[in-house]
Amino acid sequence: MKTAISLDDLQKKRGCNWFLYHSMAAAVSVGTIRMIDGDIVEASNITRQIFYKEADVDHTKK
């Protein structure tokens, strides 16, 4: 089932789920989506997110 999402709704979204990001970018067809995640890096992020190393644990996500 295809669902429409407005740009206003997209701007209200929180979190940086990789699959969700690509789905929304394709659905909305915008040039750039800037995502900000104010969370901290946890040890469990290391295996799932390629941007972080063990030295990043307990620091804010960039």
From TrEMBL:
Coiled coil: none annotated. Gene3D superfamilies: NAD(P)-binding Rossmann-like Domain. Transmembrane segments: none annotated. GO terms for molecular function: ubiquitin-like modifier activating enzyme activity. Residues 24-61 form the THIF-type NAD/FAD binding fold domain. This is THIF-type NAD/FAD binding fold domain-containing protein.
